[in-house]
Specification:
The protein is α+β, with helices and mostly antiparallel strands and 145 residues long.
């Protein structure tokens, strides 16, 4: 893959309207590190994946990429509800095409591997609430001709 699994999933989540790529708006989505603003935001991290064997017909290895989605906001219930909405959407993903530049990816499926977990409030005066959820995804890249 020419792009990280987090980049592929973030492109999908922004296109689905669950987050924005505008760093000045609420529910901006970052990759591998969240900025201080906006207060309501999400961040995707690449985590350990799982090799799941090979296809008998072609010998192709099947790999499930690991991701963690961290969401923060000002209110416990609103922030948890945001992450639940994302979880609900990802549960329905089946062969979704994502294009980044000239590369086309297919998100075959996304499987949640953890509950929605409350990490507590951030230190400091803002005390924003932070939740996380972990996923495995099967993503393929269309070969260029």
């Amino acid at each position: 893959m020419n792009h990280s699994p987090s980049k592929v999933l973030s492109t999908y989540l922004i296109a689905a309207g669950l987050f924005t790529d505008d760093r000045g708006e609420d529910w901006a989505l970052f990759i591998s590190g969240m900025q201080d603003k906006p207060s309501k935001a999400g961040c995707l991290y690449d985590t350990a994946g799982v090799k799941d064997g090979r296809l008998m017909t072609t010998g192709e290895a099947i790999f499930h990429y690991g991701n963690q989605l961290r969401v923060r906001g000002l209110n416990y219930q609103t922030t948890r509800a945001k992450l639940q909405a994302v979880v609900n959407d990802l549960r329905e993903v089946q062969n979704e095409e994502v294009t980044i530049g000239t590369d086309t990816y297919t998100i075959v499926a996304v499987s949640r591997t953890s509950d929605i977990l409350f990490l507590g409030a951030e230190d400091g005066s803002k005390r924003r609430k932070v939740f996380v959820c972990n996923f495995l995804s099967t993503i393929t890249m269309e070969e260029s001709s």
